[in-house]
Amino acid sequence: MEPISIPSQSVPVLTSVDVCVAGGSCTGVFAAIRAAQAGCSVAIIEAQNRFGGTAAASQVSIWHSLFAMDNHTRIIGGLTQEVIDRLGKRNAITLETKPNPSIYAILNTEELAIELDEMVLENHITPFLHSRVVNVWRDDDGRVAGVIVAGKGGLFAIKARAFVDATGDADLCAAAGLALWRNQEVQPPTACAKFSAWPQFKEGIGTLIHNAAARYNLPEGMVWGAFSPAKNTYMLAGTKIPELDLSDGVSLTVAEIEGRRQLRAIQDLVADAGYPRPILEALPSLIGIRDTKHIQALYRVTTDDILYGREFPDVIGRGTYRVDVHSQNPPGSRFLYLDGREVFISPHKKNESGHWRDPALPTPPFYQIPLRSMIPAGVDNIITAGRMIDAESGAFGALRVMVNLNQCGEAAGTVAAMAVAQDKPIPDIQYRVDLP
Ligand SMILES: Cc1cc2nc3c(=O)[nH]c(=O)nc-3n(C[C@H](O)[C@H](O)[C@H](O)COP(=O)(O)OP(=O)(O)OC[C@H]3O[C@@H](n4cnc5c(N)ncnc54)[C@H](O)[C@@H]3O)c2cc1C
């Protein structure tokens, strides 16, 4: 249809701060906390009713290893460890006792949301929930000087000197007209859900779904899940919506409804297979989104940078989580480990194992995340943190997990605060993070 024009309007400015963070998963909250701790006034804007993003709104409950490939040398600390400690005091987390490449901690994601509320308030950050950044406001010099936010009462503005885009989809960068790109094959979104009375399956839920996939119109792919720390609910990540980029509202609507249809179909097929019907206890308030748009940054991380543990002068984070790319064809997930192993996991078949490189070659202790991969080109007061990172598909498959993006959040907040304090463009800020 023909576009319509809307008249220009005045909107109230609700606050003016040093640093404004758009998006409030742990990534965004950690950015806000670090900026506040550096002495900045900070506002954070989150579209959902709670902080925590994919963990709290989409129920994804697993954090991966904080250690190097020797399983001993700590590479991640900071606010990630602080949240683990805080949840530990409330019995809201379980930690794996043995080295495990798939799990380090299982979080009670409801408790996480409350913990993040407390951390935001303790650090005197001004929160805006149920609020979505929809545009930017530019000053007379054309510089991004504020964001336009759609809230419950209508549009409002927040002025700031520096911005952190932690929206996952790079909404703030898109509004600022910055260049974005997307992978040819976008990793599929998944509606996770929590169930009680989750049966003990003889054949595995992946096999059950595979056997009934055609009958229930279920796309195939990776299926996994985890019991909550109290073991009373099971979070299943078993649905998928192939080939949809959920960075626009129409696709998001289609995917939310289709995700819930698939959840009911899984309950039905479990019951049809002769097991007690699992009881649906909680739906996500936002479908889990793996991959949408990426920024064009000062540096694009390559898959080799990750797999060979390339060192960067502007390292701001480290990780060991394997390259993990979900695919529909063939259905499953391909894991490439830093020690040279390659494993393809299918929902219903034996794992296929091999090596992507000669295993006799040395294993890097970890990979590094360069600050430049978070700084969009073409603007001087916006930094990003999160899954919009500029990384090739394989590199993104490793970097996208929360313990990595948490570090990006902390670095983004620190760098935004440094840019404000030094009155310098973000790309000119020199910053690196040493091992904790
Ligand atoms: C099903 C699934 C399973 C996964 N499994 C794991 C796992 O086991 N372990 C792991 O570590 N990682 C896992 N991941 C990956 C990981 O969860 C995500 O890559 C990561 O959480 C992304 O973090 P983020 O902060 O970039 O974005 P998000 O978590 O998407 O957070 C973005 C936040 O910004 C808000 N927002 C968006 N747009 C706006 C706007 N315009 N204005 C204001 N707010 C906005 C959103 O509401 C959200 O709270 C999984 C992902 C999925 C989908």
UniProtKB/TrEMBL annotation:
This is Ribulose 1,5-bisphosphate synthetase/thiazole synthase. The keyword Acyltransferase does not apply. It comes from Oligosphaera ethanolica. It holds the Pfam family FAD_oxidored. InterPro entries: FAD/NAD-bd_sf, HdrA-like. Keywords: 4Fe-4S, Iron, Iron-sulfur, Metal-binding, Oxidoreductase. One of its GO terms (molecular function) is metal ion binding.
